Amino acid sequence: MEAYLNMFQSQYPFSLLSDEEFEFLTKHAQIKDYNPHQFIIHEDQNEDDIDIHFMISGLGNSIMHRSNGKQLSIRYYYPGDLVGMMVVMSSGEMKFSVQAMETTQTLCFPKSAFMTLMSSNRQFSNVVLEGISSTMKSLYQEIKYKSADSDEESETELYTKRVDGYMESPVFIHSSATIAEAAKVLQEKELEGVIVSDNHKQMLGMIGYSEILTAFFQNDQDNYVEKYMKTDVYAVMSSNFIYEALSYLKHHPTSIIPVFYKENVVGFLRQSSFFNIQDSIYFDLTYRISNSIDVEELRKLSPFYNKAFQTFVRQLINHGTFGYEICELISSVNDRIHKQVIHLAEEEMKGEGYGTPAINYCFIVMGSEGRKEQGFSTDQDNGLILSDYQNMKNVEEIEQYFRLFSQKVNFMLEQCGFPLCTGGIMSKEPKWRHSIGEWAHNLEEWIKSMDAQEIRDFTIFMDFRPIFGDYSLAYQLREKLTEKVKKKLHVHQLLMKDTLRFRVPFQPFGRIIGVGKQRNLNLKKSAIMQIVNAVRIYSIRYGIDSVGTIDRLNRLTEEERFHPRDAENAKMALHRLLTFRLEQNLSQMENNKPLTNDISLHQLNKEEKRKLREALAIAKRLQQVLELSYNRNRVV
């Protein structure tokens, strides 16, 4: 220990301390050892219980926890770095964890002693704070760009109107402008806030009346904007749907929301953006979901039980909204419910004495929910990816935690209107709950020994998408999956054969084949899945890692694998088929009938039959092209 302290005392800035100060700081210091993936600091720790660590050896990963459940890896700690100061300096406004990435050793000393020295030794304090300030600024840039184009924003695409149709032109102020100058801009422009940028493109932060008043109360109005601006700012992309952004404004009426296109600010939204939107009763749906305190409250808000939401979907259909955009709406609401269920399950685990998760994990959804093509009729398709934990001492405790936790999540979701999967594709099943290393190994074996039965589960799995936790685990797995499946022609063949199990019931001269007296047609098996499967196979062939059918079509078009006209035809067909299913489900719910994918041809009018016929013809064509291509022993 003494050798460590001698080495430590010679390190800058601790060399600035007197012998007495150094002895005071290290009197109760201790060496701590951490295994890979073990938490040095956990997000749920009380701030008063967090100590300061000096990294002696190893590597640490600093993780920021966002309100939507997503985790962002924002920096690494190396030997010689101080760990814990960023958590202390953020004063609880942002949640951080620090996790060992390899065998790591730190010198840990009490935060109280450190903060006492910060107060008494000004030179030492200035050096430490300067380093922390510099780090926070660089982290902000990274967090901002990751946030601006992350799932937090993509999941806000809730209804039908896009942000760029309602945003105002951005108003900027330079970071070196004074607080008084910023106040004048707000007054003259009649704004709630202004965007801080030195190049009128990239955002450094935002300043509003709250920050300006703080400066004036401190008689500091001649200081720079940079000192008082907010850097942790809620933002959206210009292509996002408008509704959740407006929900945020409804509950934060004195704020503005910056709008980004890629990394540049192109506009902003504010409270007056409400004025041109009708049906504002629906704005706060996701807010209510995120603030639900029990499963019963969530159940009432879920699409299957929420009559107001169903009425709104009917209005969207009547307004001509694309069927796949409405399904994305439903999927986004479902995502929110899943996330809140996971929060509730974690709280139950803590209440029952199991504590917080000892390792990072990622909750994934698959199938139509993964593609964001969910309708009202659904079951659960989900799984868990865990950090590698097999080398940790408490392996059995970790496995027991996630076994119980995943059961809670699946059964809570069932209570919210998401039936248990009859095929067992759920996180509570061992087959769908693995560490990232096990997933990678199983993927290799799965692909190698694939048969006709397994291909059906594999098809559902291929459309997985992360919705909670450490998204990097899902991204790692997606990268491995895309790379491996692209090269496996026998898997392509199995996927093609599986999609041919159900032929599109469409005969020459436009005759649609129905079943039974009502001439029923199963929209999912007869047409929707033909389009979804064909586009998936094309995407696999060309190494496209997108998940949603529309996203895949866009990528295929960009890479000149699909002609734009063919892609638009496929989108049109999918829109019509999904809309038919949504209308059928709404009718079934209104009449208290079981939800199905069947539609009666007898109940369609002439125009509806024409639209259905055109959609089926496109699905039939896609199926035929796939079959002909593979019969020639090559992949289209």
TrEMBL record:
GO MF assignments: [protein-PII] uridylyltransferase activity; metal ion binding; nucleotide binding; RNA binding
* Keyword Signal carried by entry: no
Q: Which UniProt keywords apply?
A: Activator, CBS domain, Magnesium, Metal-binding, Nucleotide-binding, Nucleotidyltransferase, RNA-binding, Transferase, tRNA processing
What Pfam family does this protein match (any one)?
A: DUF294_C
Record-annotated CBS domain positions: 166-223
Q: Which GO terms describe its biological process?
A: tRNA processing
- So which residues are the signal peptide here? none
Q: Which InterPro entries match?
A: CBS_dom, CBS_dom_sf, cNMP-bd_dom, cNMP-bd_dom_sf, DUF294_put_nucleoTrafse_sb-bd, GlnD_Uridyltrans_N, RmlC-like_jellyroll, tRNA_nt/polyA_polymerase
Q: Which domain of life is it from?
A: Bacteria
Q: Which family does it belong to?
A: Belongs to the tRNA nucleotidyltransferase/poly(A) polymerase family.
Q: What is this protein called?
A: CBS domain-containing protein
Natural source organism? Sediminibacillus halophilus
* Taxonomic lineage of the native organism: Bacteria, Bacillati, Bacillota, Bacilli, Bacillales
